[in-house]
Design a protein that fits this description.
With about 220 residues, the chain is of the alpha/beta class. It has two domains: about 120 residues, Response regulator (Rossmann fold, 3-Layer(aba) Sandwich), CATH 3.40.50; about 100 residues, Orthogonal Bundle (Arc Repressor Mutant, subunit A). Helices cover about 40% and strands about 20% of the residues. It is built from eight helices and twelve strands. The strands form three sheets. The chain has a five-stranded parallel β-sheet with strand order 2-1-3-4-5, with helices on both faces. A four-stranded antiparallel β-sheet has the order 6-7-8-9, covered by helices on one side. Strands 10-12-11 form a three-stranded antiparallel β-sheet. The protein is elongated and about 55 Å long. The relative contact order is 0.10.
């Protein structure tokens, strides 16, 4: 099986070495860059499957580099913890954001999720009853009639449809939709799911989203 290639862009040699060791142990190939300029040069000859991008870089900063990284999922890595910083990175093209210091297990989980999403972006079609999701066009339909969803509602439905035989915990849903709703909490999640449920029902779909008390949600027949 082809190993996924992850590019580490960080001028801190210690952190870069730690990330390289962690990723290698978990079955990834790696490439390194220590500045924004060096990253652009390396990308001219080799294309990784994902980039871990530190924001505090010499020369071209991570913020300035991010818009130049096209068609490659980028996880921004920074000590900045404010919601504004996180939203700015996501709006400028990052698919995810993790703050230093981070738990290695969380980082690996986020990498796995973003690689999986990127591998299906070229046209995965998901069906559940008369509901269909087209991940190429980010669209949802019921009986071939388009349903207008917000980004957050679409992301929630995508998570549920990819796990249609399972109960998905609230924590996992909130983690996977964080790129769309960075400050989503339990109450807000219930509101988003309620709105999604109503839109699907009004479009002719059944009331197929079931709350599993104290755990999360699942699709039901």
């Amino acid at each position: 099986m082809h190993k996924k290639l992850i590019m580490i862009v960080d001028d801190d040699v210690y952190i870069g070495d730690m990330l390289e060791e962690l990723l290698t142990k978990n079955g990834y190939d790696t490439m390194r860059a220590y500045s924004g300029t060096e990253a652009l040069l390396a990308l001219s000859t080799r294309t990784p499957d994902l980039i871990l991008l530190d924001l505090m870089l010499p020369g071209i900063s991570g913020e300035d580099l991010l818009p130049k990284l096209k068609n490659i999922p980028v996880i921004a890595v920074s000590a900045k913890v404010g919601i504004e910083s996180k939203i700015n990175m996501l709006m400028n093209g990052a698919v995810d954001y993790i703050t230093k210091p981070f738990d290695n297990r969380e980082l690996l989980a986020r990498i796995c999720l973003r690689l999986r999403e990127n591998s299906t972006v070229a046209g995965e079609s998901l069906d559940y009853g008369n509901i269909k999701l087209d991940t190429l066009n980010y669209s949802a339909s019921v009986d071939k009639k388009e349903v207008k969803l917000t980004k957050t509602e679409y992301a929630i439905l995508l998570v549920l449809m990819r796990n249609k035989d399972k109960v998905v915990t609230k924590e996992r849903i909130m983690s996977e939709i964080e790129i769309y709703t960075p400050d989503c909490e339990d109450g807000a999640l219930r509101t988003h799911i309620g709105n999604l449920r109503n839109k699907l029902r009004l479009a002719g779909g059944s009331d197929c989203i079931e709350a599993v008390w104290g755990i999360g949600y699942r699709l039901k027949n």
